[in-house]
DNA sequence: GTCTATACGAAGATAGAC
DNA sequence: GTCTATCTTCGTATAGAC
């Protein structure tokens, strides 16, 4: 096996296991076992666990960028693009109910460990934040674009956390519907009454 | 030292360290060092780490119940009581920006570890959920009380996660303000327009 | 590039003296 | 009830053969 290919396999296995079990709880032996490598050979590719974590974060950053590019290519309208973000909670529902949001849980774990890579993991949030912010600007909400981006990011994090705690599909569907309604109400010039009701529905 | 007092000291130290560093990352040596005990003596009080975790969760459940009772005693009006919950994000802002929400992060970690105590930790969420639900019922929103409770719980989790990732006080204040506005809009009979605007403000 | 063998330290847990 | 000493397991990391 070519080194680059093996390395890639390791990164992808680590990516999955870090998400499913957490960074600290995943051992080199777990990853080596998944890939079908010996523990010894592992160190030919990654000298330390932190180096591997860095590669995993880089991998996630690339994948995230590619996903955001895909959403941009798929729709011209900024609100349709933002809907792609909201729909991620549905698309990844099963995984999220089992393991939470990959970004939120990694950042949370690294914060508690006071890990050097904490700020790099937060770049994953930044990717979403700034992409969303650009969409809200294009939506005609330049002045509040960043706050709106943070708001919807906040909601997706809250939904993911409670989805994992309760494994409740109906809750997820409800909140996704609330997010869609909220988004519709953000359109400039939309009459606030009576179509958009800030009152929550069950 | 009386056994019960030492035990209580251990539980409180573990409670703090589990919150600050996480359950797995906290060793018996850390806790013993904090309390000023030898590692050996530790096992006189708790035979396993899981037993200690159980005691910590029990302790948190008691403290949470007592806090909720306090909020009920302090205000008759259900919306004022719910405001106490929202204000928790401000009262505990410093800790939350450093370590996230104690409930959300513990549930998240135990979920990844697939730990037996996961469901017990989720009882902490249940305490808030059902208390909030009762307040929304008293507020005149019986039919949607549980969904409203989940919604505000979701928001507080999302705010806590992003607060820890960005350590941004202004974001927290903004979102707390949004939560208050949302709550005001939940009062039955409140005109939706023009006072309550579902549009987000920066 | 991959393997086996092994060093080293950390952490959970136990035994037995005081 | 608290201590010291010790056992065991596991996980990171290294050395060196193939």
Short description, anyone?
The structure is a homodimer of 202-residue chains. By secondary structure, chain A is mainly alpha-helical.
Structural features, described:
2 copies of one chain form a homodimer. In chain A, α7 (102-113) runs antiparallel to α8 (118-138) and α9 runs antiparallel to α10 (169-185). Chain A has helices at residues 3-21, 28-35, 39-45, 49-74, 78-91, 93-99, 102-113, 118-138, 145-166, 169-185. Chain A is elongated, with a radius of gyration of 19 Å. Chain A has 10 helices and no strands. With 202 residues, chain A is mainly alpha-helical. Chain A folds into 2 domains: 1-47, Homeodomain-like (Arc Repressor Mutant, subunit A, Orthogonal Bundle); 61-190, Tetracycline Repressor, domain 2. Chains A and B meet through α7, α9 and α10 of A and α7, α9 and α10 of B. The structure holds a DNA duplex (18 and 18 nucleotides).
CATH architecture of the largest domain in chain A: Orthogonal Bundle
Sheet/helix structural class of chain A: mainly alpha
Total domain modules of chain A: 2
Distance between the termini of chain A: 55 Å
Oligomeric form of this entry?
A: homodimer
The total of helices of chain A stands at 10
- Strand content range of chain A: under 5%
What sort of overall outline of chain A do the alpha carbons produce when their principal axes are compared? elongated
CATH class placement of the largest domain in chain A: Mainly Alpha
Order of helices and strands of chain A: HHHHHHHHHH
Report the largest inter-chain contact.
A-B, 56 and 56 residues
The whole-number mean of residue pLDDT values of chain A reads 94
Low confidence ranges of chain A: none
Major sheet details of chain A: none
The total count of strands of chain A amounts to 0
CATH homologous group name of the largest domain in chain A: Tetracycline Repressor, domain 2
């Amino acid at each position: 096996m070519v080194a680059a290919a093996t390395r890639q396999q390791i990164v992808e296995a680590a990516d999955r296991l870090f998400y499913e079990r957490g960074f600290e709880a995943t051992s080199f032996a777990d990853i080596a076992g998944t890939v079908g490598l010996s523990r010894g050979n592992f160190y030919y590719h990654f000298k330390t666990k932190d180096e591997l974590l860095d590669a995993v974060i880089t991998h996630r950053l690339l994948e995230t960028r590619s996903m955001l590019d895909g959403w941009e290519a798929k729709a011209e309208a900024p609100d349709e693009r933002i809907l792609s973000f909201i729909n991620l909670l549905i698309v990844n529902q099963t995984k999220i109910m089992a393991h939470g949001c990959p970004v939120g849980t990694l950042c949370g774990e690294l914060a508690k460990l006071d890990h050097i890579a904490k700020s790099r993991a937060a770049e994953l949030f930044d990717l979403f934040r700034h992409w969303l912010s650009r969409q809200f600007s294009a939506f005609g909400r330049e002045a509040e674009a960043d706050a709106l981006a943070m708001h919807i990011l906040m909601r997706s994090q809250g939904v993911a956390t409670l989805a994992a705690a309760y494994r409740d599909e109906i809750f997820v569907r409800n909140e996704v519907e609330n997010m869609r309604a909220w988004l519709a109400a953000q359109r400039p010039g939309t009459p606030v009454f009576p179509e958009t009701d800030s009152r929550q529905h069950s």
